[in-house]
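[agent] plan:
  1. take the single chain provided in the ticket
  2. run structure prediction with default settings
  3. attach structure tokens to the ticket
  4. add a short note for the reviewer (M.T.)
[agent] executing step 1
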Amino acid sequence: MSTWEETLAALVREHGQRLHRTAYLLCGDRHGAEDLVQEAFVRALGRRRSAAQVARGVETHEAEAYLRRTILNLYLDSYRRRRRWVGIRHLVARPDRVDSTAGSVEQRLDATHALAQLPPQVRACVVLHYYGDLSVAQVAAELGLADGSVKRYLSDGRAILAVSLSDDADSSAGGKS
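[agent] step 2 finished; step 3 output follows
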């Protein structure tokens, strides 16, 4: 076994339990604590410079303090990422559970039927803008139209869809009574 491996084994043997307890108290999860400690060892000793320092005889209490600080930083970084993710998750994530697909199939059919009622130019603008997520200027460039024309087509499309989809909703609600 090399000096570096011996040093790593000694650090784990002497300080592993204490570091694991610290990590557990931070995250409250045994598996999370194990991951934190392992990542701390990888980050602290994975680089040649720090591994060489430890192998040359850095005091073990200094190594433990460094690892403890690394665990704390890793925990805080993951906490910040989770907190930030909670704020934006709704923008990109889908719900974990879908109750029934019947409603979504009906809505999709209603929307498809309503889109079919639109004149071709209006339909193209609506699809590119709302489904393709293109700006008005991008839709205009794509279709070779003026921005004002695209805005007018989008306005007309929204008006037609609002009437068409509200009629579908009224008729389906009325038919179920």
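[agent] step 4 note for reviewer: Residues 111-176 form a domain with the Arc Repressor Mutant, subunit A fold (CATH 1.10.10.10).
[agent] ticket updated
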